[in-house]
C-alpha cells in the first residue's frame, strides 16, 4: 500500500513498467482550473525515455488520456484519472532475469516482501511509474501558476562535475537548452561528454538535482510533523534512486556557526525580507516568503552493461549481464520528476493552509 | 494541524514550551508490551536540558506521567497518553521578545500563519516539544526490542570536527560515555572543548547525528510513496533545526559510478547478504535485512548571545539581544530524539507490513 | 476530494456517468490472491443496468479491464487499477437539463460547491460510480473467501412490502433466483409486480437492503471511532440514495428493555456464543464472532417520469420532465453494491486487526 | 488504534473509566477562536453523571484543564489538549467482574482482541470516554457559532414513548428545561416517570436522540465517500450504545414514492429553497442550505440490577449481578454527546470545503 501522496491534493499512482498501463488519479484538484493538455504532454516529454543520446533509447511516446474529472476544459473538483498505456514493452528482454536478483535493484526485496513480483522491467519498482507523477505534477503546476508560484529544477552535479554557481547566479530559463538540463553552459557540455563516456563504458553515474520554488506566500507548512521541508523531503526521497535531501544551507549548515548562519530580518519597502537565505525559505517548518531551494542526490543507475555476480530466487549463484536499454545517468530525466513532486507538495500545503483560520 | 506521525503506531504531540505541559498520545501501541517506566524516564534524561556543561542550563526534570492505556504494567492496546509538566518556566525571560521576530526563529512565520502566537520560549516551535517524541519513542523501542530490532544514534560531527570512522568501526555502546555522545574517543574531547569555546563566545554551532538500525527484517517499507527512507527522512526532517538527511551512500553516492556503487548479493550460509551496503539496508524503499544507517544535519541554534538587528511585529527595526539559557550546540541532546523518531518509524512499518499477506 | 475508502485495503474511485470511463484503484490488496476475473465480471453483471424489466433499460456491458497489480493471475501487492469504459452514453438525453436543478438530485449542490459540473447523467453524482465499488468489492470478496468470511445481501423491503422473515429464516442462496433479489419467494413476486406498476405510473419507490456477514472472527473493529458498525454504517451511507443504517436490533432496540435486549453469553462446546444476537455480532465496536446483520434504507429514485416544477441555474422557474432511462426502484441493483462495500470494510478491519499485537 | 476523528479539525481521545484521567487533543482548531472555558464546562455538566434522579448517581465533577494551544484566551492554531481527571473511582466495585464477561458488554471482545483489558468500569469501552468528545465538541461549537451554525439535539423517544412533533413543531430552547431533555412538555414528564420506574425495577431502556443543524452553508460534504451524512452517521454510530442512524426521511423514506419524496426547489426571494425537506438538508452528500436533521437510536444500557447467566474468562458458567451506579436510560446524557460529534463533523467539513477552489 502507500501509493498515495498528499492530504487535500492527493495523488494515487498505479501500474507496472511492462503491464498494460501506468496512471494516476488526482483527488482534490481544485475546481475550475483550466486543464492545458498540451502542457501536461510537454511535461511528459521532458521525462520520457529516448529523448536524447544520454538517456535510454527505449521509445515510449508516453501519451496520456484523461478519463475523468475534466469537463469542457476545466477541472470539476472530482477525481482526475490519467492513463498512459505502455507500448514499447520488450518483455522478453527480461525473461532472463525472471528469477535473478540484480545487484542494488528491488528484485530481492519485492520478492521477499510480497512473495511474488512482476519481474518485467522492474515491475512496480521501475522509474517508469514516475511518469504518472509528472502528469499529476503538471496539474499542480497549472494550479500554482494561477497563484504566482513557480517550481523549477535543474541538474547541478553529475558525478564529480558540478556547477559552482548558486541558483541565483544562473538563468533557469536556460535549463531546457541542453540535453543534460544544466543551465550553467560552462559545465553542461562537460557533463554531456562525461555521461556519454560513461554510457560507452557500460557504466552509470549519479548526480544532483537542485530545485527552486519561488513566489510562495508566507504560511505554508504544517508543524510539527508536516513541516514544509519534511514533506518536501519525503516527496523527493520517494523518487526512485534518491539517497539524500537537503534544503537551505543543508549539510554545509552543520559546519556553520549561528552568528553566520542566522538570516537577518529587515524591511524592503513594505515587505519583511531576510538579508541572507540560509534558511531556504522555511522557518519552523513554515514558508517565510523567500525562495525555497533544495538539493536531491541520486545514486548511479543500478543496471550496468557489465557482468556482475549475484544470487537467484533459488539461492543459486548467477552472473547478471546488463541487457535492455537503460539510462547511463538518471538526473537529466529526473528534473521534471523533482519539479512535479515539489509542485504537488506546495499545492497541497497551500490548500491545507486555508484551514488555519475560520 | 499535522501534529500526528505514523499510520498504525501513531503519535500525536501537544504543548508549548512555557505552557502548562507538553505531552503525547500514542494510538496503536500493540497490546501486551511491558511498559518499563524507568526506561522511558532514562530516555527523557538523555534529552533533558541541564544535563552537562555543553547543554543549556535550564533545569527541567522532565518527569512524565502515564494517564491511560497501561494496566498492571502492560499496554492494553488503547491510547497511551503521557504528560510532562513544565516547571522551569521563566516566562519573563521572554517578555522582551513578545513582539520581536528573532532571526532564523519561527516567530515571524508563526505570527503570519496563525495571526497569534505563544511567544514564550518559542511556544510550540520550541524543541521542548521533542521530549514528547522521546517518550513515545521509548515505547516504540520497548516494542522493537521484543523483535530484536535496535536503534542507535550518535554525534558524528560538530562544526568541522568529525569522526573519520564509520559506524561499523565504532563501538556504539560507548556513545553515552561522554557528554557530546560521540563514541569515537579520539574526537569526543575535541568536540566538547570546541562546543565549550563556542558557548563562551556567545555563539552556536551545528553538527551531524548518525543513526543506525540493526536487526530489521526484510520487507519493511511501503512503496511507492512511503519508501522506508522517505518516511524515515520525513521523521528526521521534522525534528527542529534539521537541514538535511541522507542514507546509505547519501550525497557521496551522487558522485559514484554504478560499477562501484552496486552491492553485490551473495550467500552467507543460508542467508542472502550484500557484500557492501551502500544501499543503506534499503532497496526499492524496502528493507533488505542489512543495517540501515543515515545522517541528519542540524543547523546551529538560532539563539546566540549577541546583538542582532531585526524587525518587530509592528515593522519597526529592533536589536535582538540573546537572553535566556540556550544550547550552544544541539546535537548531543538530539541523539535520543533521532533514535525516538527512527524507532517510531520502524515500528510503524513493521505493523504495516503485516497487511502484505492475508 | 474524499474519493478513497479504507485504511489498509484502500479504494479510490473516479469517473463520471457520461465521461470516458469510470474506474477504481485498489491499494493494499494483499499479495498472492488469485484474481478470478470471471467472478469480478459476474459481480458487475449483478449491478449493471438493463438486466431485467424492473431496472433501467440502459445498456452498459460494464466490461472491465485490469491495468495493473496482477501478474500471472495473482495479486502482486501493488495497486490494482480497473477501468470500465462508458459506452451507452446518450449525452444528448441530458442537454435539456444542462442548466436545470432537478428536484432531490445533486445538480444544485454540485453546482454551488464546485462552480462547475458535468451535468450529463448526473456526472460524478450518478450511481454509475458504484460499478467501480462493485469491482473493488469483488476483489475483497475473493480475499475474504480465503478466510471463510461470506458477505451476502438481499432486498427485504420495497415500499410497504416486506418479508416478515429474519435472515436466519431465509435461504440466502435463493437471492439471485428472482429479479428483485428477495429470497422470500412468498413476497418476491409481489415486489416485482409492485415495482412494475410503479414504473408504468412513471413513479419510483424506495426500499431496504439487508446485509449479513458470516464467518467473521472475533476482534474486528477499531474503537473508539472506527467501531465496526460505525465504519460499516459510513460505507453504507456513502452509497447513493441511502437514508438510514441500523445493525442488530437497530431502531427497534431503542424501544427495548435491557433485560430483554442483553445477549446471554454461553458455551457451545468449546466456543463462546451468545444465545440471542440483538447485538448484531458486534460488542463495543468489535466483532464477537456472531453473524453481523444490518439494514440499509434507500429513498425512491429522484428521477420520475412526470413533470415537476423547479429552478434553473439562472434562478428561473422551470418544468423538469423526466426523460432518459431510469430505475423505478434501486434496491435490486443495490444488493451487490451493499455487499461490495461490506466486503471492503470487513477486509480492511481484518488487516487492521493484525497490528493489535506484535 | 482509531482513536482519532476528523480530517482537518481532528480530535484524538484517550483514557479509561477508572484510570488516572481521560482527555482529548484537538489538532487543527482554527487560530483566533475565543476559548470560553465556562461554556466548555457547562457542556461537560450536561453530560456528567449524577445530574438528576434519572441518571447514574456516580459523582464525577468532570472538571477539565487545558494544557496547551490556548494563549491569552484564544486558540493559537496548535493542538489543544484537555484533561479530565477521574475522581470518583470506586474500582473495588469492579473486582468481582475482573474475569467476568458481562452480557452485551465489551468485556469478551476487548479480552479476545487485545488479550488484556482494564476491566474496571469497562475501561476504554466505558461511555465515560465521551466526556472528552463533549469537551472537543464545545470547541467546535464555539467556532461554528462564529459562522452562524447551530447544533442542537434532544430526546425524542424513550422506550415506546415518543413525541409526535417534528423538530420544527418544537421549541428547542426548552430542551434543558427538564431532566430528560425532551422539549415536548406533554411527553417529557411521562418519560421521566417511565425511566424512574425502569430504574426501580432494576432494568434499563433505550431511546432516540434527534439532532438538528441549522445555518449550514451550501457546499459542505465530500463525495463520494465522505458524504456529509456518511461521516455524520459514522460520528453517531461511534457513540457508545448506538444501533442506528437515519437522516431526513430515513427509514420512512424507504416506503415512499418519488413523486411524494422529491423536494421541489423554488425561489424564496433571492434564495433557492426546497418546499419540503425530506432530503434532510443534504443532496448528493452535500449540504443544500436547508436544516440537517437526523435520528440516533440507542440500545438499553447493558448493566441491569438483576442476575444474569454468563461465562467468565476461564470459560466457567457464572452469575453476573448488577452492581455499581448506572444509568437506567442513556439518552438524556447522550444529548450533548450527539451535539458534540455533530459539531465536530460539521466544522471539519467547513474547513475541508475551503480547498474546493484555489
UniProtKB/TrEMBL annotation, chains A, B, C, D:
E.C. number: 4.2.3.5
Amino-acid positions noted as binding NADP(+) in the UniProt annotation, renumbered to this chain: 47, 53
Pathway membership: Metabolic intermediate biosynthesis; chorismate biosynthesis; chorismate from D-erythrose 4-phosphate and phosphoenolpyruvate: step 7/7
SUPFAM superfamilies noted in UniProt: Chorismate synthase, AroC
Reactions catalysed according to its record: 5-O-(1-carboxyvinyl)-3-phosphoshikimate = chorismate + phosphate
Residues bound to FMN: 124-126, 240-241, 284, 299-303, 325
Gene3D superfamilies membership: Chorismate synthase AroC (3.60.150.10)
EC class name: lyase
Membrane-traversing stretches: none
Cofactor needs: FMNH2
Cofactor binding description: Reduced FMN (FMNH(2)).
PROSITE patterns (alphabetical): CHORISMATE_SYNTHASE_1, CHORISMATE_SYNTHASE_2, CHORISMATE_SYNTHASE_3
Record keywords: Amino-acid biosynthesis, Aromatic amino acid biosynthesis, FAD, Flavoprotein, FMN, Lyase, NADP
GO terms assigned for molecular function: chorismate synthase activity
Lyase listed as a keyword: yes
Subunit annotation: Homotetramer.
Function: This reaction introduces a second double bond into the aromatic ring system.
NCBIfam families: aroC (TIGR00033), PRK05382.1 (NF003793)
Family to which this protein belongs: Belongs to the chorismate synthase family.
Protein name: Chorismate synthase
Organism expressing this protein natively: Reichenbachiella carrageenanivorans
Amino acid at each position: 500500500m502507500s501509493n498515495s501522496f498528499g492530504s487535500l491534493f492527493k495523488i494515487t499512482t498505479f501500474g507496472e513498467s511492462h503491464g498494460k498501463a501506468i496512471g494516476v488519479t488526482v483527488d482534490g484538484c481544485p475546481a475550475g482550473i483550466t486543464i492545458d493538455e498540451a502542457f501536461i504532454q510537454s511535461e511528459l516529454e521532458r521525462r520520457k525515455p529516448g529523448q536524447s543520446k544520454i538517456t535510454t533509447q527505449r521509445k515510449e511516446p508516453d501519451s496520456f488520456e484523461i478519463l475523468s474529472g475534466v469537463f469542457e476544459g476545466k477541472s470539476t473538483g472530482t477525481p482526475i484519472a490519467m492513463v498512459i498505456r505502455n507500448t514499447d514493452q520488450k518483455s522478453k528482454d527480461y525473461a532472463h532475469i525472471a528469477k535473478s536478483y540484480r545487484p542494488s535493484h528491488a528484485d530481492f526485496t519485492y520478492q521477499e516482501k510480497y512473495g511474488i513480483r512482476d519481474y518485467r522491467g522492474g515491475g512496480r519498482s521501475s522509474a517508469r511509474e514516475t511518469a504518472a507523477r509528472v502528469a499529476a505534477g503538471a496539474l499542480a503546476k497549472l494550479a500554482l501558476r494561477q497563484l504566482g508560484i513557480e517550481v523549477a529544477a535543474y541538474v547541478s552535479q553529475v558525478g564529480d562535475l558540478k556547477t559552482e554557481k548558486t541558483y541565483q547566479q544562473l538563468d533557469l530559463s536556460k535549463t531546457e537548452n541542453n540535453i543534460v538540463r544544466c543551465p550553467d553552459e560552462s559545465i553542461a557540455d562537460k557533463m554531456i561528454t562525461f555521461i556519454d563516456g560513461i554510457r560507452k563504458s557500460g557504466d552509470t553515474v549519479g548526480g544532483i538535482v537542485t530545485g527552486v520554488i519561488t513566489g510562495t506566500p508566507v504560511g505554508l507548512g504544517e508543524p510539527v510533523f508536516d513541516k514544509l521541508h519534511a514533506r518536501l523531503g519525503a516527496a523527493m526521497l520517494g523518487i526512485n534512486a534518491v539517497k539524500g535531501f537537503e534544503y537551505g544551507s543543508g549539510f554545509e549548515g552543520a559546519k556553520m556557526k549561528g552568528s553566520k548562519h542566522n538570516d537577518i530580518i529587515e524591511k524592503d519597502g513594505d515587505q519583511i525580507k531576510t538579508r541572507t537565505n540560509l534558511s531556504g525559505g522555511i522557518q519552523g517548518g513554515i514558508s517565510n516568503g523567500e525562495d525555497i531551494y533544495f538539493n536531491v542526490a541520486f545514486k548511479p543507475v543500478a543496471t550496468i552493461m557489465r557482468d556482475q555476480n549475484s544470487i537467484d530466487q533459488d539461492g543459486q549463484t548467477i552472473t547478471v549481464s546488463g541487457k535492455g536499454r537503460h539510462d547511463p545517468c538518471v538526473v537529466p530525466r529526473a528534473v521534471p520528476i523533482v519539479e512535479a513532486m515539489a509542485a504537488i507538495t506546495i499545492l497541497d500545503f497551500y490548500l491545507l493552509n486555508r484551514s488555519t483560520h475560520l
